[in-house]
Design goal:
Blueprint lengths: L1 E4 L2 H14 L5 E5 L6 H11 L14 E4 L13 E5 L7 H5 L2 H5 L3 E5 L13 E9 L2 E8 L10
Parallel strand pairs: 2-5, 2-6, 4-5
Antiparallel strand pairs: 1-7, 3-4, 6-7
Length: 153
């Protein structure tokens, strides 16, 4: 399915819609060229989960973790791992950084998922390819089997 995202507001609405449907152990695999909007969409999803404040790009650290608050303070509603695998040279490096440990019970937002071996084979994977189109973007969405009853963007 293709979704037109003509402006930033559309990208933010799309991110919130994904956040509303996101469950632990899901993967949102974000693909697209440099500047296609992967990090912008990831930030919209993280905000949609309840995070307030800045969302750093994980391109240097590779992994940023967001945990629900222990008290009544505002925060994300479920554990989340935001990873940018651009700098990985080989998929085995995802194991070396302990990706499975980070992912336990958490949802994963994966930028450049192919650099980590890909996640499309997982039933909980929502694959999104972002393409530049005129002034905005187009999202090409491919839901895994666990997402098919939740996709109604």
């Amino acid at each position: 399915m293709k979704i037109a995202l003509p402006d930033l507001a559309a990208m933010e609405r799309f991110g919130r819609a994904i956040a509303d449907r996101l469950r632990p152990d899901d993967v949102v695999a974000l693909t697209g060229g440099l500047g296609a909007g992967k990090t912008t969409l990831a930030r919209a999803i993280i905000a949609g989960l309840g995070h307030e404040g800045e969302v750093p790009s994980p391109s240097f650290a590779i992994v940023e973790v967001y945990d629900p608050p222990l008290s009544g303070a505002p925060g994300v509603r479920l554990p989340l791992v935001h990873a940018d695998f651009y700098r990985l040279k080989d998929p085995s490096e995802a194991d070396e950084i302990g990706l499975d440990d980070y992912r336990y019970g958490a949802a994963l937002l994966a930028e450049w998922p192919d650099h980590a071996g890909g996640f499309a084979h997982e039933p909980g994977c929502l694959s999104i390819t972002l393409e530049v189109a005129d002034e905005g973007r187009i999202a090409i969405v491919e839901p895994g089997t666990d997402w098919r009853d939740r996709v109604s963007f």
